[in-house]
Amino acid sequence: VLIVMVELCSIHFQPEIDNENMVVNSLFADGAAALIISSKKKLKNTHLPSLRLSGFHSKVIHAGGAMMTWHPSEKGFLMGLDSLVPQLIESNARPLIAEAVDKFSIRKMDGLNWVVHPGGRKILEAVQRGISLQADDLKESYIVLKNFGNMSSPSIFFVLKGMLRKNQPWKKKECIIAAGFGPGITIETALLEPVIA
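Predicted structure:
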């Protein structure tokens, strides 16, 4: 199955000058990514890196329900982004990751690879503090944010592509924790394991 994600975040652009619009206008960008998902356990005739989707875990932080919003209007899509979003993510990151790691039966967090949606610099810093990571653990996320901005759904695949290029060859039992954030506020995680040929 070919999955294509296209986000036209430029439709959020609003000319009014206020703090919220300035953040949204400077942070979000258009982007597209595609991937192929297969039910086969092993892929043949490909030199491309492959990953196994081994688990998912998500949580809705209801306290942040009004902190990230999209509203269609006569002026286009109006996006609301509260400055307290990073703080909310930071305080909820550790318990969520602990739940995910437990669900995925991962015994220790040392040596995990992290693919975190680059929602913004403050979001990445909040995740980093929330689960006690080093800046280098989120290096690919910072690179994507700097070079492309927050492209919404395709962003995490840009981060993943950078990591897959960097980490060759993969070792057995190496894994990736992917995490993304959205309205709700929703935090989604996935366990990805490289398929070793």
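Summary: Helices lie at 19-27, 85-103, 121-130, 139-148, 155-166.
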